[in-house]
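Minutes, project check-in
Item: structure for the 442-residue chain
Input as provided by the requester:
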Amino acid sequence: MSPEPLPLARSSSDPTAEAAFKDWVRRIVKGAAELQAFEAGQIDAVMDSATGSAILLPEAQAALQGSSRLVLSALEALPGEVCVLDAVGTVVMTNKAWRAFGAARAGAGLSVREGGNFFAACRDAAAPERVHAAAVAAALREVLAGERKLFRRGYVCHPAGARCAFTFTITGIAEAGTVHALVTRENISESKRARAARSSGRAKRSRIAAVAQAGTPNLLLAALPAKEYQRLLAGLQPVALTYGEVLYEPGEQMRHVYFPIDCLVSLLTVVEGHRALEVGLVGREGMLGSRLALGITTSSVRALVQGTGMAVRMKSTRFLQEFRCSPALQRALFRFTDALMLQVTQTAACNRFHMVEARLARWLLMTRERLLSSEFHLTQGFLADMLGVRRAGVTVAASALQRRKLMRYRRGTITILDQQGLELAACSCYRRVQVMGLKAPT
């Protein structure tokens, strides 16, 4: 039987305690070869045959503790905002940047402190953040359950009335059969401001070239005479819009107008401060902020980026100047506004009279014709909000379309498999709101 272990810290720097510990180890080491390796300092641990456990020697313990301190110091020094969650969502570790963000913004943006619960913070998020917070909480559950390895989403909050946009990334970490989560937060607003500061001295010609290289032209802009389009280029700026980013909130000043290129933006009407229902979609056929043409400077809807991609934008004051002196821009904008009003009214009737399966097919077709891909990311919970139905209804409708091999839904990614079949499954509303000139990708 192995002797009882000594009641002392094996990593103690006390020479007497260290000598006593080594004598104790010699008594439990079995075999001449192992004892010789121990005396020569060639092994880091020995096995206690009585308990079946490995015992680290003092030098190995010191090295392990030093390595842990190095990892923690590196995490603390990272410029990015990082926190670590346990299997039930409790914050077990944060770094300096994470704590500084929360302190500067009074806890907005899910700035949970150590010991707090991330799910509780998502549930108690302020009204403007609830859509984003609910999506983050749903993804975190999937990551901690081992159903998803990585999640990335845009997030917007308004601490002290100032708009702050950033991106959440959640990564699963498996350790001894338990999944933890590493959460990082990238401040998009500050990155954009830094980029703007670096590029403020560039010549007007460089900005025009950047817009020209942004990709496939927006159809509203492409409909303008070449001379007027060239004049508009001087006031346009290319921007990357991220899934989940909010461009406008109801009652908020519209400081910019946006012309999508390969992104997609949902127009949502907000009820009771947090519940939302989609009333329209805008992609490369039009613009966001057309209400300015009516002399109204605030938004009536929430404009939420549904598909990540590029757009070009212009300051509202500059756009109004161009609009007043350009009959061609006026005609193009009025045509788009008329088409958007038709889409809004048709969507309202569709939500009232048509079956969920046909409405889902219609919505997928409208999404696909505005994006340059037959595959896009979308959660069933978010789609339920878009269609104004319960999530269970979306699940049944999506399953029916999958059985007919018209689409595939897997872990938040929808893939259109049969364009013509989906058109036959859609209600007649799709043909009434289909945008001429938008060809779905093949």
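Outcome recorded: The domain at 235-336 is CATH 2.60.120.10 (Jelly Rolls).
No further action items on this chain.
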